[in-house]
Design a protein that fits this description.
The complex is a heterotrimer of chains A (237), B (440) and C (959).
Chain A: H1 6-17, H2 26-37, H3 42-52, H4 56-63, E1 77-82, H5 85-89, H6 92-103, E2 116-121, E3 133-135, E4 138-140, H7 145-156, H8 183-203
Parallel strand pairs in A: 1-2
Antiparallel strand pairs in A: 1-3, 3-4
Helix pairs in contact in A: 1-2, 2-3, 3-4
Chain B: H1 20-25, H2 30-37, H3 40-50, H4 62-67, E1 76-81, H5 90-97, H6 99-113, E2 117-122, H7 127-143, E3 158-163, H8 173-180, E4 205-209, H9 210-214, H10 216-222, H11 224-229, E5 231-232, E6 235-236, E7 238-245, E8 251-256, H12 262-267, E9 281-285, H13 305-310, E10 319-324, H14 329-343, H15 349-366, H16 373-385, H17 401-404, H18 406-425
Parallel strand pairs in B: 1-2, 1-4, 2-3, 7-10
Antiparallel strand pairs in B: 5-6, 7-8, 9-10
Chain C: E1 27-32, E2 35-40, H1 45-51, E3 75-80, E4 83-88, E5 99-101, H2 105-121, H3 136-144, E6 162-163, E7 168-170, H4 180-188, E8 194-197, E9 204-207, H5 219-224, E10 230-232, E11 245-250, E12 259-265, E13 268-274, H6 287-290, E14 306-308, E15 323-325, H7 328-346, E16 351-355, H8 361-375, E17 380-381, H9 390-395, H10 401-406, E18 409-413, H11 417-420, H12 422-434, E19 438-443, E20 455-458, H13 464-473, H14 481-493, H15 511-516, E21 523-527, H16 537-549, E22 554-557, H17 564-569, E23 576-577, E24 581-582, H18 583-594, H19 605-614, E25 619-623, H20 627-630, H21 634-643, E26 646-651, E27 663-666, E28 675-678, E29 683-687, H22 700-710, H23 720-730, E30 751-752, H24 782-786, H25 799-803, H26 812-818, E31 854-857, H27 867-870, E32 884-886, H28 888-894, E33 901-906, E34 910-917, E35 925-927, E36 949-954
Parallel strand pairs in C: 1-5, 16-17, 16-25, 18-19, 18-21, 19-20, 21-22, 25-26, 26-27, 31-35, 32-34
Antiparallel strand pairs in C: 1-2, 3-4, 3-5, 6-7, 7-10, 8-9, 11-12, 12-13, 14-15, 14-27, 23-24, 28-29, 29-30, 31-36, 33-34, 33-36
The chains are: A alpha+beta (237), B alpha/beta (440), C alpha/beta (959).
The complex binds flavin mononucleotide, iron/sulfur cluster and FE2/S2 (inorganic) cluster.
Flavin mononucleotide binds next to strand 4 of chain B.
């Protein structure tokens, strides 16, 4: 199965409807196809081309620009290890070496059982947890050799299925609604505001806009928390 | 240091900060309510008064950018949540932990700008972030803050969350627009210089960063003057600095601009907590990997836009990375050049080919296969990417990714030429791998 | 970003504005290297500088495509508010006072740097690269680059080369990511089948898996690739650039008239390259034209006269008898003898000539004079009932290609331009994409332009005229509201709807000016034969209706057959004499200059074939014609070939029909003879000769002259220039064409005929195509550009060969033009008037539709079983297949699966064909490409019938 059918086709159409021009839905549709198949198949790209009124080559050409879109099969778990500057300074390169040894594949490779694909990734914006890794774009860190091994064991045993869906699934909530604002309303709204603006400007060029009074700032979290953001995964201890 | 307010990180770390309940409990959507009671121009005036510098890297004043939005029947607002500049992780946090604040800021901007549709482009790798913003958006629609007749104001706007798919260059605003149009993320050639004139689908478009947007609820609620009362000169308000590297407490810290120095950030017990293992700072990167490096002598510089600029670097994306005295600067610079090589979009020859060549030379030097003349070759290749090797860099490419390649190398060679030579002479890296086994 | 406006075009046709209303270009003055230059405001710096002799190196910039500024080779210093900085010249629009430096140390270093970077990953396999020797990267590295590369590391590696289509090979390692091929495919051809893949220095060119780069225009990417990344499979390793000789010529694959460089190596034609001629092909060629060079050396090429020997004293009726070579004298005496016999027994009308569109103008004139003036038969027809009536084509007010591309509205009637005149499709596509020209099409099936059409109307075969009538006359629109609104929209775009009264205060709307806007002003009608399963009545009636309703409109016929225009202009059609003169109107004049003309109007091809079948036509000349393949009714063609007493073919290659020939006369082919040709817009250009005809093959005019001699008469000329002088002397169409129109710079552009007697006084509003031409419109654009040297970066392979001292563009083939006597002065009264067609729509009802049957469409396709395709090894496999295309809904209704075999039955015959679901077709019609491989749809078509109805049924039952 790699063309969209049933619900996924309906969802694909909804995605297309969110954009003023169909082609804009190209990346969301590629993600949808990856969520369905784990990677981006030729059939899916042809179907996407159909839905967007493009040639398949245009879909492929665009998809191939983006690292997350895989036009070759990848494992159920795509493990990305960051070796960029912050992780490098904290041992990211060594973590990658360890991971390659542990999984028995070079970066870019997939284990024989098709469960793990290892990638060296660029900074994933989790530097406060360096060296860090992502599994299907769920973040783990900081990781050392042991915690990495535990993570792999947990994944293989299915203990993290709650937190880490299979490769390709990004957001587990999908947009249920289409657009609320009718384009005509929008145009009318804009016209009205432009008109009002013009008349206001004409009416009082002298009266300076009244400065807003200072409100009370929102409740502050206790000072001193590091600002590090919460960890979704519990695999790293 | 007086205690500055926490403008964008107030909810970070509190339970349920990403839910509507949590958000409403802490004053959520009050800024929007207030904005909707004002005229769009008045909202714009507050933002101008705040002198809010864009937080995406270029530091362009938001109110001024908005003023450039060309008239037109259809216009768009695009929020840049593609955060991929290495060692920058503030937007990631804001997106995951306070998605409603981002949406509220976006709605305020949409109202002030009079756009009917806003797109929030989120880096594809932020899976949880995308999920949270999608959820929050759903809640906000239900709450009535988004969509038709927002909060009973008569104003309507739709917001669409758009995932990226893994390409650093899509953070560049025109590449982002191409990507949003479903194309390869090729930055657009300039002119036209400003998306505010020709942007998404060729119509006027404002592109602003996530942190920029997240500041708006506070600014509207408290007034632009309150914001500009913080900081000094052009550097007003607070700003999140993403601190990483060899510090005891890496993380995002919102501090008052200008009033705080790099040393405060790195050493203050409530912030970075000092260099790890009591080591010395060898060098630090003041504003993301595109910025020239600073040395310990510059630690006392204030976190001010112009001050850092005058000293020959930039605050950029607000990412500060500290390297202690055990760090191999060649390896660090090599890894940065590798990043640019992997992320060059491939349009312009100097960037596409230059990045790869420079990376190969750096790799050779780091691994001990370098020749003495390689150092000058390196600098000359960099010079061919950005002529003159000056600051701010000369640009002969379509976007500034090209000119971002040399700074880490050039400033590194300037400061540590002997370390480069040592690699050549000793035919290998004189520094042990850092961080090996540092983590359990 | 929209494409820059089409540069060509006469002001007269720019929209509905009166002539000359186009805003004048603002001129600015800029300083380049200290020199003041004049330029047009907004023009690209790289182009402005080039025109003034300052050449700025470049790779990605191509004058016919949107600039992308990717390669950065064109960096120059431009002064801004903060002093000079390096800027790409291909992306700088010139403005008053701009200061530019192109040779400073900073620029030099930038150029060095870019070239060194380009060579980082570009393999140095120049000795085995097809481009080596004419490679812009090689040349520019030599001129602007560093002495040597300091790159010592390993280059990127990819498997090489890979075939991305049958015609094009790709070596990804050599690619420098200039985006020329991909831009061309997407923006110019509209076939985005190739794309960039990946990112950064791993960017490669690729197709989608299992979807080759099957574009009619793929060869252009080979031509514009600035390195050896894209190469032509047919040219691969055939020659080294320094061994190439070349001559400039005009492609005669179709009637569009693309200018090309014909290149040879060791006496063999090896490559054709497009030359940029602004009003015509703008540098592009279609693949059929580009790769047609293989035909000259095809193994079955005719090289000597042949005479059939079986069946003593004549030929067998089976068409299978053996032939033997003879000398020219023997062969011609045999032919002359048979002609004399026929003349003696049944008179001149028993001799007929079919064909002639392969010939050059001079050849056609010689054959017309032989047939009509010497033999005395008017049964001469260059078409095979596969086009449009000659008098209509000749007599409609003519538009130029530029007119069409600058029209406010183009009305497309009948055929798909991409199948008929492929490069016209490219030109139109660009105009339509630019938005200033709108398209209304009235066609039986979706065309390649349908997506860009403002209104696209379908008609059922047989109902074209009524549809057109409803469109321009607003009558008979029917009840379907969608269709009604389409018809209304079309009517408004065509200016057929009543104009709204001028608003009161508008001073410009002076009554007489408003009155000047005839309905249809600014409209160009493209007209072509949509189907051979339908008579040409639909197209003739439609033209008549449009001409009457839109008197301001002009017509551009789509003549797909090589030099059909030239053949018609020479009089190779019944009722015509040279120079677009009718037999009646020209009788007196031509009797005087030729001595005799036919007594009465003769037969067209259908009549000739019927006569041959019935025995009234005894001697049949096939002048490069193959009725068995090209005449719509194959059975009739066969009966004619079998029935004719004596068949003579004059041909370059054998065809299905030549099996019936009693005598085969070998003719010189393209590139082997000189002469002139006339394109579908009536532009006359020179053909170049680069190689000698094989063995005993002769140019067609010489065959006519020698045959005349054998008949005991004298055609009166012994060289091309003598024929040309005579044509210019006697033909009103060619009057005024002395040496001047082909002089120096203007030679490349040729000249549009008729040339007005006094170009200055010519009324631009009247059908005066010449005003677009540099010859008379001595505008700033014209002459200078026409004579411009060829930019080696826009078309690598032409200019660079020249500079290496090979044969110059003005090769021997042309020199005869230079030796012509000076222009001949005419007293216009001396010459007969040219045709003017006032066709009346025919009366009489169209056949009723048979509810059970489908109406058949049999259109021409670019690639078919014709000689032009089949004689080229590279093209032959691309031929369209004879399959029956129907709408999916129709297939469902018939209960036939797509891909299944069906029986297609007409009143005339029955074929078993594979059924194809085709979304381009509406319901109630079936389409089988004409002359496709596998089966002859002409077996289903009855000559002369208005429409062809077919039934389709599953063939399983009948097996
Ligand atoms: C190579 C490159 C990468 C960039 N990446 C980002 C990014 O990830 N996020 C971002 O907000 N801005 C990024 N920018 C800056 C944007 O182009 C743009 O200036 C910014 O989004 C504008 O928002 P602001 O005015 O609110 O800062 C990048 C710029 C360049 C040249
Ligand atoms: S294949 Fe040739 S034309 Fe195409 S991008 Fe590469 S170098 Fe340019
Ligand atoms: S960038 Fe100007 S020619 Fe390529």
């Amino acid at each position: 199965m790699s063309r969209f059918t049933g619900d996924s086709l309906a969802y694909a159409r909804r995605l297309v409807s969110l954009y003023p021009q169909r082609r804009s839905a190209l990346i969301p549709l590629c993600h949808l196809a990856q969520a369905q198949d784990g990677w981006l198949t030729s059939d899916a790209m042809e179907h996407i081309a159909e839905l967007l009124g493009l040639e398949p080559a245009e879909v492929l050409g665009t998809a191939s620009f983006y690292d997350m879109l895989h036009t070759e099969p990848v494992g159920r778990y795509l493990i990305g290890i960051c070796t960029n500057i912050a992780c490098l300074l904290e041992g990211g390169m060594e973590l990658l070496e360890h991971a390659a040894k542990r999984l028995g594949v070079h970066p870019g490779g997939t284990t024989g059982d098709g469960v793990f694909t290892l990638e060296e990734v660029e900074c994933v914006a989790a530097c406060n947890r360096a060296p860090c890794a992502t599994v299907n774009w769920r973040f783990f860190g900081p990781l050392g050799a042991d915690s990495f091994d535990r993570l792999v064991d947990d994944l293989a045993a299915g203990r993290l299925d709650q937190d880490v869906p299979r490769h390709g699934v990004l957001s587990r909530t999908v947009r249920r609604r289409g657009l609320d604002v009718a384009p005509e309303d929008v145009a009318a709204e804009r016209e009205r505001s432009d008109r009002e603006k013009a008349s206001r400007l004409a009416a009082s060029a002298t009266e300076a806009p009244k400065a807003a009074t200072a409100g009370t700032p929102g409740a502050q979290a206790p000072k001193g928390s590091s600002g590090g953001h919460p960890q979704p995964g519990k695999g790293s201890k | 240091m007086s205690e500055p307010p926490r403008i964008v990180t107030s909810r970070i770390g509190s339970e349920g900060s990403h839910t509507l309940d949590g958000y409403l409990a802490s004053g959520g959507y009050e800024g929007l309510r207030k904005a909707l009671s004002m005229t769009p121009e008045a909202v714009h005036a507050q933002v101008s008064q705040a002198n809010l510098l864009g937080r995406g890297g270029a530091g362009f004043e938001a109110g001024r950018k908005w003023a450039m939005l060309a008239p037109g029947a259809v216009r768009y607002l695009v929020v840049n949540g593609d955060e991929s500049e290495p060692a920058t992780f503030k937007d990631h946090m804001l997106i995951e932990s306070d998605p409603h604040q981002l949406i509220e800021g976006t709605l305020i901007a949409a109202y002030a700008l009079g756009v009917a549709r806003a797109f929030i482009y989120i880096r594809g790798e932020f899976a949880l972030g995308i999920e949270r913003v999608e959820n929050a958006l759903e809640e906000a629609y239900q709450y009535g803050a988004v969509g038709r007749d927002m909060l009973g104001s008569g104003f309507s706007v739709d917001v669409v969350v758009h995932p990226g798919a893994g390409a650093y260059i899509c953070g560049e605003e025109t590449a982002l627009l191409e990507s949003l149009e479903g194309k390869r993320g090729f930055p657009r050639i300039k002119p036209p210089y400003f998306p505010a004139v020709i942007g998404l689908y060729g119509v006027p478009t404002i592109v602003n960063n996530v942190e920029t947007m997240s500041n708006l609820p506070w600014i509207v609620l408290n007034g632009g003057d309150q914001f500009s009362a913080l900081g000094q000169g052009r550097s007003t308000g607070t700003r999140i600095f993403a601190l990483s590297g060899h510090v005891n407490r890496p993380g995002n810290y919102e501090v008052e601009m200008f009033k705080t120095t790099f040393r405060d950030l790195v050493c203050s017990p409530s912030l970075g907590g000092g260099v790890r293992d009591g080591r010395q700072v060898k060098a630090f990167i003041p504003g993301g990997v595109s910025s020239p490096w600073f040395g310990p002598d510059q630690l006392d510089m204030p976190l001010g836009q112009d001050e850092v600029g005058k000293a020959g670097s930039m605050l950029g994306s607000g990412a500060v990375t500290v390297m202690d005295d055990r760090t191999c600067v060649v390896r660090a610079a090599w890894r940065i050049s590798k990043f640019f090589w992997r992320e060059s979009c491939g349009q312009c020859t100097p960037c596409r080919e230059g990045s790869g060549w420079v990376e190969k030379i750096m790799r050779r030097i780091e691994s001990g296969e370098g020749r003495e003349e390689d150092i000058d070759l390196l600098l000359d290749a960099c010079d061919n990417i950005s002529p003159g090797l000056r600051w701010p860099p000369a640009q002969t490419t379509i976007c500034v990714l090209g000119p971002s390649i040399p700074p880490s190398i050039v400033s590194g060679v300037q400061r540590f030429r002997d370390e480069y030579l040592m690699h050549v002479k000793e035919k290998g890296c004189p520094f042990p791998l850092t961080g090996a086994g540092a983590r359990p | 970003m929209p494409l820059p406006p089409d540069r060509g075009g006469s002001a007269a046709m720019s929209g509905t504005e009166p002539a000359g209303a186009r805003a004048p270009v603002e001129r600015v003055s800029i300083t380049v290297d200290g020199r003041q230059l004049r330029a047009s405001k907004g023009e690209l710096l790289i182009a402005a500088a080039e025109r003034e002799g300052v050449y700025i190196p470049r790779f990605c910039y191509h004058p016919r495509m949107r600039e992308v500024g990717m390669c950065r080779m064109c960096l120059v210093e431009v002064k801004g508010p903060r002093g000079f900085s390096l800027q790409p010249a291909c992306f700088q629009h010139v403005a008053e006072g701009m200061e530019v430096v192109t040779g400073s140390p900073a620029v030099k270093k930038a150029q060095d740097g870019v070239l060194e970077f380009l060579l980082v990953n570009h393999p140095l396999d120049c000795p085995v690269c097809d481009k080596g020797g004419e490679c812009p990267l090689q040349d520019q590295t030599l001129t602007y680059g560093p002495g040597e590369s300091r790159f010592v590391e390993e280059k990127r590696h990819w498997a090489k080369p890979i075939a991305i289509s049958r015609l094009v090979d790709l070596d990804r390692e050599r690619c420098i990511q200039c985006d020329r091929c991909t831009r061309f495919a997407k923006e110019v051809a509209g076939d985005p089948f190739i794309t960039f893949l990946g990112r950064g220095d791993h960017t490669e060119i690729s197709t989608f898996p299992d979807r080759p780069f099957s574009s009619y225009f793929s060869g252009n990417t080979v031509q514009i690739c600035p390195v050896g990344a894209l190469t032509s499979a047919a040219y691969r390793f055939k020659a080294r650039p320094w061994d190439l000789e070349q001559v400039e010529s005009t492609c005669t694959t179709c009637g569009f008239g693309c200018r090309m460089a014909v290149q040879s190596s060791s006496g063999r034609l090896v490559r054709y390259l497009g030359i940029d001629v602004d009003p015509v092909n703008q540098g592009w060629l279609c693949d059929k034209g580009r790769f047609g060079f293989e035909a000259a050396a095809a193994p079955d090429r005719r090289t000597q006269p042949l005479v059939r020997i079986s069946g003593e004293g004549g030929r067998g009726t089976t068409g299978t008898g053996a032939t033997e070579p003879r000398s020219w004298r023997q062969a011609l005496e045999l032919v002359a003898g048979r002609c004399n016999e026929a003349l003696a027994s049944r008179g001149p009308a028993s001799i007929a000539v079919v064909g002639g569109s392969r010939l050059a103008n001079e050849d056609a004139y010689a054959w017309a004079k032989l047939a009509k003036g010497v033999i005395g038969t008017d049964s001469v027809d260059a078409q095979l009932d596969d086009g449009m009536p000659a008098e209509m084509v000749q007599g409609l007010p003519r538009a130029t290609i530029d007119d069409a591309c600058n029209a406010s509205t183009v009305l497309l009637l009948g055929a798909d331009p991409r199948e008929e005149l492929p490069v016209l499709f490219l030109r139109l596509r660009r105009s339509l994409a630019g938005g200033s020209t709108k398209l209304v099409e009235c066609v039986p099936a979706a065309t390649s332009l349908t997506q860009l059409a403002s209104v696209s109307l379908r008609y059922l075969p047989g109902e074209m005229a009524s549809t057109v009538s409803a469109m321009v006359g607003g009558k008979g629109a029917g009840s379907d509201p969608d269709r009604r609104s389409q018809l209304e929209a079309a009517s408004v775009l065509l200016g057929a709807a009543p104009q709204s009264p001028p608003s009161a205060g508008d001073a410009r709307e002076a009554p007489e000016q408003a009155g000047e806007l005839m309905p249809g002003t600014g409209v160009v009608v493209l007209i072509g034969r949509p189907s051979l399963a339908e008579s040409s009545r639909g197209i003739t009636d439609s033209a008549a209706i449009v001409a009457a309703a839109l008197p301001g409109a002009r017509f551009l016929p789509m003549l797909r057959r090589a030099n059909l225009q030239g053949a018609l202009d020479a009089g190779l059609a019944p009722g015509l004499l040279p120079g677009r003169v009718g037999l009646g109107a020209g009788r007196e004049h031509y009797e005087k200059v030729w001595g005799a003309v036919p007594a009465a109007r003769g037969l067209d091809t259908a009549g000739i074939l019927a006569g041959a079948a019935a025995g009234t036509v005894e001697v049949l000349f096939l002048l490069g014609a193959d009725p068995l393949s090209d005449f719509p009714d194959q059975d009739m063609a066969r009966a004619a070939l079998e029935g004719a007493r004596f068949v003579v073919t004059v041909e370059t290659h054998p065809s299905a029909s030549s099996a019936f020939a009693d005598v085969v006369l070998p003719a010189a082919g393209y590139g082997e003879r000189a002469g002139t040709t006339t394109s579908t817009e009536s532009r006359i250009t020179a053909l170049g000769q680069k190689v000698v005809p094989p063995s005993l093959a002769w140019p067609d005019w010489m065959i006519a002259a020698e045959l005349c001699d054998a008949l005991g008469s004298d055609l009166g000329f012994e060289s091309l220039s003598e024929i040309w002088s005579e044509m210019v002397d006697v033909s009103p169409l060619h009057r005024g064409l002395g040496i001047d129109p082909f002089d120096s710079g203007n030679r490349r552009w040729g000249v549009l005929v008729p040339v007005p007697a006094d170009p200055q006084s010519a009324d631009p509003q009247s059908a005066d195509p010449v005003s677009a031409d540099p010859v008379s419109a001595a505008g700033e654009r014209g002459g200078a550009e026409a004579g411009k040297p060829i930019d080696p970066m826009a078309v690598p392979g032409i200019g660079s060969v020249e500079t290496q001292g090979s044969a110059s563009m003005a090769g021997s083939a042309r020199s005869w033009l230079d030796q012509l006597p000076a222009g001949i002065a005419h007293s216009d009264g001396r010459l007969p008037p040219m045709l003017c067609w006032n066709g009346e729509p025919s009366s009489g009802p169209m056949p009723k539709r048979d509810g059970y049957a489908l109406r058949l469409i049999a259109p021409h396709r670019l690639y078919d079983q014709g000689t032009g395709v089949q004689a080229c090894a590279a093209l032959a496999p691309l031929s369209c297949r004879a399959q029956v295309h129907v709408n999916q809904a129709e297939l469902d209704a018939l209960g036939v699966p797509a891909g299944g075999a069906v029986l297609v039955t007409s009143a005339k015959g029955r074929l078993e064909l594979v059924a194809v679901a085709d979304p381009a077709l509406p319901r109630s019609v079936a389409m089988v490409p004409f002359n496709g491989s596998g089966a002859a749809v002409s077996q289903l078509i009855a000559a002369g019938s208005e429409v062809t109805e077919v039934r389709i049924e599953n063939s399983r039952g009948s097996r």
